[in-house]
Amino acid sequence: TGLTILATDLERSRLTASPHQLTPLQRSAVADELTAILGLEGSAAAGLRRKLATDAWYQVLADGLDESVASRVREAAGAGRLPTVLLEPHPIRSYPLAGGGHDSSLAAHLLGFVNGEGKGQYGVEEAYQADLAGEPRVVLAQRDASGQPLYGSEQVLSEGIQGSDLSLTIHAGLQVKLEEEIFSTWVADRAKKVSAVVMDPYTGEIYAQASYPSYDANDFRAVADEDPGRFVDPVVAEPYEPGSVMKMMTAAAAYQRGVVTATTKVNDTKILPLDGGRASVRDADRVGRGLMTFEDGIARSRNVVAARVALKLGKTTKSASLALYDTWAQLGLDRKTGIDVAGERVLPPKDPAISPWKEIDLANRSFGQSVALTPIQIATAYSAMVNGGFLVAPRVVSAVGERRLVSAPGRRVLSETDSARLVDLMEHVVSTVDLYRDRTQVRGYVVGGKTGTAQIWDSKANGGR
Question: What confidence tens digit (pLDDT) does each residue in 316-359 have?
Fold first, then answer.
């Protein structure tokens, strides 16, 4: 497999000066020299002149100079053309691999980036800032007018701690392939956004995770100026209305309580009146298919079937609502997953114990409407349904330096029997419907799943929930 470097430090230089010690004529000459060396024009050249026009004792003129430019600065300074100008070591984070989509670096959302001040922002970079950065060496010293420490005056207050490398659970080849696929989907479907996550249901390890539009972490400043919203990772921070993938959670609740089996017949009527006829739900095709087995109702994603079963979870609407919500909570849908990246955000569903649901609320939520979840919440819940019934925490980092991180044992939330039934149901979904079977079956593998038509969640229209 080998080692793939997703992020590394490059040795660069910071350009500084002491304008306070320069005459106006010297400032102009230094500006002319540096403008030529740095190849600045227009507003960039004007910005450099403004920095030199101050009375500051210490002014940062430029960051991230590579060695070829730095050597030209040294040459000019050695010839006396750049008085008070100094070069300081200033490593920068580099993300060397191109992403699978246009103008992006690999795993940009997952990794985040390091800003000009050396602080991790978003993703793994922010979550593991303390481990990556370590602690700086602290030295007390007297300095001369040019900023150089006086010989013999240095006193080391702290030797500092070297930052640690991180090893990730990401499979680079799979990450590239996933990014290529979601970029192709984004183009083909003219989508606003496309997101995907590949997770080991037994350990919680993330093998690949991506969204598009993405960004180039090496050029984060330009992104910050144009659209800083692109830094936010939709997989962990943008809840959406998941639609019919939630029917599997309804199935889990029904299996737990013995309400139905796979072969229980449920009447798929054209319309299901609710709340005394004041509301109703129907299927997307607005056609009633009559009596069908529960497993066929889920495979063909019948809203009426899911709603009827949800209503049977309790003797009253309140008890049925509490039963469905209880299964959601067991599957972690009422809280953050705890994935080890920065910025995870959730919108906890309305708790029927606090805000009672009507029949229409229960029905809609049984097939994934009027509730908002993130893709990582859904992936985590599905993992529990297929791994024997254990809720595991998703994670991205496998080691900090030499210290291996071991996955915490999952908490049992479903019985092994119910998990096996849910696996059978997911297999039934993709083997029963011709369209799914033709596009999902892989020779030598067991494939299962559940389709869902997502809607855009409007938190304002839905009371912040």
Answer: 999 999 999 999 999 999 999 999 999 999 999 999 999 999 99
| Cα–Cα distance, 246 to 306 (Å, whole number) | 10
Over residues 6-28, the pLDDT tens digits come to 999 988 899 999 999 999 999 99
Residue written as token pair 């030529």: 36
Cα 29 to Cα 39, 76, 370: the distances in Å are 15, 12, 65
Whether 441 has a pLDDT exceeding 80, the answer reads yes
Q: Closest by alpha carbon to 85, among 154, 149, 33, 39? A: 33
- pTM of the predicted protein model: 0.85
